[in-house]
Amino acid sequence: MTVKFKVVQGAAPTSATTQDFTSSGFGTPKAAIFLIGRGTANGTVADTFNWGLGFTDGTTSHSASVMCEHNAGVADSKRSQQQGELLHIMSDTGALDGAATFDSWITDGVRIDWSGNALTNAHLVTCILIGGSDVTANVGLTRITTGTNVAHGVGAIPDLFFLATTTASADGISNDAGLSLGVYTYDGSADTQYYMSAFDNDGYDPTSTANILISGKVAGSINASGVNRDYQITAEDSTNLTFTRSGASFGIDPLWLAISFGSATNKVEIVEFAIPTSTGTGAIDTVGSWKPQFAMLFATDNTSYAHSATVDCSQHIGVLDDTNEYSVSAGNEDAATTTIAKSLSANKALDTIKTSDGSYKGATGTVHTGSGSIDADGITIDWTATTYSVAAKGIAIMVEEDAAGLDLTATLVNVAVADVNTSINATRNLTATLVNVTAADVDATINATRDLLGTLVDVAAADVDAVVNATRNLTATIVDAVVADIDATVGFGADLDVTATLVDLAVADIDAATNLSHLLLANAINVSVADVDATVGLDLDVTASLVDISVADLGASVGLSRNLTATLTNLSVADIDATVATNLHLLASEAAVLVAALNATVTLAGEEGAVDIQVRRALLTLIGHRR
Questions:
Q1: Is residue 484 situated within a structural domain?
Q2: In terms of domains, do 225 and 206 share one?
Q3: Which are the contacts of 610, defined by CB distance < 8 A and separation ≥ 6?
């Protein structure tokens, strides 16, 4: 969030060309205020009461100007307003001398164009650049009578509203010099408003002049007798400012500039002050004790803010920021048979031109010099010269600076929290790199809770957020976990019967990818008959007969090799080769034949020995084949 005000000065060209006003790093302005005086060199008094101002928002521009001729036997005084002209000034004789229009916003500033009407002399021009990401500005010109609503166009009640009028028609030059400049601020609950005005009757001899600075009103006109009419803003909303008139029933056509700071919280205050009667410094402090970035000063020769005028036509305007200070001042002595009208431009916060002050009168005018500076809680004016015998009144309009800090620091290493600028880091919690920062400093916008940290070092189990590890059951590797901690997602059911035969196996040794119960173990060692599952493929009747039979006892005639008997798992009854049964029958038959042969051999042996030998050989051969 940013709100920016900067002041710059330049001498106007005397040829048809453009002129730039820039402040390095400012960015693109949203609006600008221009001031012009008769002076061509800072600090040098010029003849003729002559100054003007203008407002622009880049789309709409309006300006006003006033003059009173110096050294005239009869007062020659004029006022002028110009629609569409950003800035103009009149000549010594009251004719239009030069005028500029808005050309464009440029990098860090504004370009204006004098091509249509170049000045005769290179008068000094002061520009107030107004910008910032949160600023909205709008310029207009509205006919105001009583009860008039001015549609300000900034979408919220303006934080600042400037209004200027010569009480003349919207365009053209009129007799009598009179220019009113007013200001209004709103702090969210109450408004503050002031205006200053000066007047010189055209055609008078001796001169008839007056000036005023009034609180509680925002615009008006005066004459030698005092206030003629003035206007107060009596209601405000996000669309309109409502004006109420008092005094003479005449309307005015003021040019105005409305400024909103949007969501930015920069404060604006108007503080009263007095121009001292002796040299020395004087502080103008903000009520809230905050540091301004910009101040604009109004002053006249009036010694009060009451609804009454003081003689002499005098107006003084000063502006300053943290680098530059400039002012425009004009004065015209009252009751002079030959006019004493002077102007002054200066690079001081408030150099005032005074043409009359009791014992002080003279054709050259006298100067009250005030050099200004920005302080932590306001501004200070160093009054280095004084000619006032009474304390004239003034006001200071001050705009708070943006929050200070380390702008645009990419990496903050060992930086104190106070050094982190809100323009990078709305709070210290948004720091991209947090070094040596406690957990409390970590903002929710980076880490909703510390549970979301990618790496949790020395964090208690309670700190581990569900989004990382819903429960400890989901941990890929579970060390020293009890059976109950083994989640179903690992591949084991909660049934203890399944894991009952896992003797002396740590849970950590159970691989989820294996997902085997003891029934599928490749080697079943020391398993009792009761543990042999039906999935082995042998019922107990079959396996009962296999008990106590060594592998060596199973001959090749059974049809099974050592390898086939080593693993009886996965053999169904159907897998027992038919040759088993067949061979068993053959074995039985061979036993009978053997017995018969032996009997025959015994019988024959007694009768003939040779036959006995032959029968024995045949029997051994038969038995050998079978084995």
A1: no
A2: yes
A3: none
> Is the pLDDT confidence value at 256 over 70?
yes
Q: Which helix (H) or strand (E) element contains residue 581?
A: helix 578-605
Q: What is the mean pLDDT of residues 402-408?
A: 58
Which of 204-218, 444-458, 561-575 has the largest mean confidence?
A: 204-218
Report how far residue 181's alpha carbon sits from residue 93's, in angstroms, rounded to the nearest whole number: 23
* Cα(11)–Cα(108) distance, integer angstroms: 19
Is residue 147 assigned to a domain?
yes
Residue 406, pLDDT above cutoff 70: no
Check whether 430 has a pLDDT greater than 50: no
Residue 624's H or E segment, with its range, is helix 609-626
612 or 252, which is more confident? 252
Dihedral of the CA atoms 383, 181, 210, 42 (nearest 10)? 40
Partner residues linked to 181 by β-bridges: 164, 196
Cα separation values, 205 from 339, 363, 393, 576, Å: 9, 17, 28, 145
Arithmetic mean of pLDDT, 61-88: 94
Structure tokens at 168: 């003349």
pLDDT at 114: 97
Q: Has this prediction a pTM greater than 0.85?
A: no
Q: Which of 576, 591, 618 is the last residue of a domain?
A: 576
Pair (235, 137) in one structural domain: yes
- Tell me: do 426 and 341 sit in the same domain: no
DSSP 501-527: T-TT--GGG--TTT---GGG-S--TT-
Handedness of CA 361, 362, 363, 368 (dihedral sign): negative
Query: Does position 544 have pLDDT exceeding 70, yes or no?
Result: no
Do 380 and 463 fall within a single domain? no
Question: Do 250 and 117 share a structural domain?
Answer: yes
CA distance 597 to 224: 168
